[in-house]
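Lab meeting notes turned into a lecture example. A postdoc, R.K., suggested we walk through two folding results consecutively so the class can see how the record format repeats. The first protein's sequence and structure tokens come next.
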Amino acid sequence: MRNHSGIGVKILELQPFFIAYHNLNSWLQVAVKPGIEELTLMLCDWIFRKTYKFPLSLFSDGVRSSIRCLELGFCTFHPTAELGPLRSLTSLHLSSVRIRGDELHCLLSNSLALETLELNECNGIVCLIIPSKLQRFSFLRIFGCGRLKLIESKAPNLSTIDFSGKTLSMLHSDVICYARTELPSIMPNLDALKLSSSDEVVNTPMLPTKFLYLKHLTIHLGLGPSPYDYFSLVSFLEASPSLETLNLDVSKKPMDNETIFGHSPHLRQMTEDQHCYLKNVKITGFSSAKGLVELTCYILKNAVSLKCLTLDTNYAFFGKCSGSGFGQCGSFGKSLREARRALRAIRTYIEDKVPTRVKLTVVGPCSRCHKLP
């Protein structure tokens, strides 16, 4: 070990009856030197996972600057903020490692060059958040992490996901199109999906692929400059026969040429396809955009089990009225004008299509602060 001069160290299949296990820290202190690029430590025994704690002291300044690939298996690993940045780390693979989600997030936040992350049976992770500062991060693989309930990706260039769990949250531009195009084949068992997009350049395509087990869908579409046809979201409804709840948060205000009052009153129709499980739909930031009105009418016609439909014409980033009697609440200007136009669209095109079994809740601007038609 003292004569080791390579750039990588691999310790594989070390068994607990080897006396070398008791000297492992000493071995690693000798072997892991500044300039090292690869370190693989796979102890391959569940006993080690409880008893062996990977020493953070190995990551000296020189090691943190040089190490590119780190692979750990069957041990305990508790990175902290004091660890410092791993400037060259591009690949991280953890297998049966005892680590919490906040500890992993700390490590990711200090690994700005990271490109790939693989997690295998790391059951201490409940929530995985991938920071937006990981500009090079493009590949995520997760298998057998039984307690993992939520993945939220803020990395802008994540392009490949291999995932065996049920709940996924993704945040970046064009994620709605990406999710509809790619996720049914690589994540067929999704139970819940949350998508947040700052801008969608293209509308959501109609495809034959399905989310057979998807029950809960949340979509947030931000203030990006590109026009978007909300009616194209029918693609998700057609692909999700088990869907129970749909939450759509729309911060975009329609341009004058997008409002239904600037178009022919004829509404587009889709081939009738009954949705037997969809019970609750909420649209926040509901506007007079023609595609949004058409999407709502499609839901009312085809969601045969629908119980509650909420159309909130206020935008999520506006404050609610406090009711204190001082000042006005946050809806004003163009947003207030659009909210009034949205209420008119609901009365004109939607209210008479609501079945008696459905509870329609319409939320408008505060009547105390604003005079409504």
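The second example is placed directly after the first for contrast:
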Amino acid sequence: MTERTLLVVLFDDVQSLDVTGPVEVFQGAALACGDRSAYRIRTASLDGSPVRTSSGLTLVPDGSLMDASTPHTLLVPGGEGTRRPDPRLVDWLRDNAPQTGRLVSVCTGALLLAEAGLLDGHRATTHWRACDHLAGAYPKVDVEPDPIFVRDGRISTSAGVTAGIDLALALVEEDLGRDIALTVARHLVVFLRRPGNQSQFSAQLAAQTATRDPLRAVQHWVTQHPEADLSVESLAERAGLSPRHFARAFHAETGTTPGRYVERVRLEHARRLLEDTADGVTKISRACGYGTSEAMRRAFVKALGVAPAEYRRRFRGPAQQPAH
């Protein structure tokens, strides 16, 4: 089996989960395939000294970046330390990262890559809070704020924190196959795998949570009953308000209209069913409130650019398609 070396960059105020999440995925993959050499993982700081994470944990690196050999995969995590990068670290990345086989950043680690000029001319993402800064400070980077991860050639960047696990699972699937990646995902009790173009937000996170109990209860009820009558009139009656008052209040408190919120919930639910079940498109369309498979197809094409069957094929691969 091919040996892949993985070097993880450490620095003060690094986000600990940006480090440990992907490391657990790659180490788990090596164990799952029965070959510990599948991934040889090392951590390194500039001078080999321990670093203190943003949560207060101390990480002890395996060695110094200055002494590290060129890895197959270089992983740059994020954290508060990326806001005030050590110029020596940026110089090291600029000089050494181009020689690696694969360059990966998690969360705001993309800011370090951008500062070193490594993302110029490439598509990239980062934590949603840092996307505007990345785009404004580094105009040569094609920033995509919505996806949980973006892969552009040998460079892969992910959104905040747990998105690094999604990206690591995608890389393991590429290296060792879906079965190994699925074994790791099950062990970590995470999904295999949220596709890279999935939004950084669920429907509920994308919208603000209403402050008033009746509106907040309606939001929750919608997510639990996507198949129901979710017209403004029906939801207004549930909230005990007139349709006009309800629509105004819902938009004021959540930042989106009731109709748009319902669209997001139904699409999100349909995607989960396509990913996790063998149910046919017609059955899923009814379970999600679309009524017909054609209505669901239109919603998918509008939001994602692909039909439901194609979405399932891309997510699950041909070997995992349901029988017809």
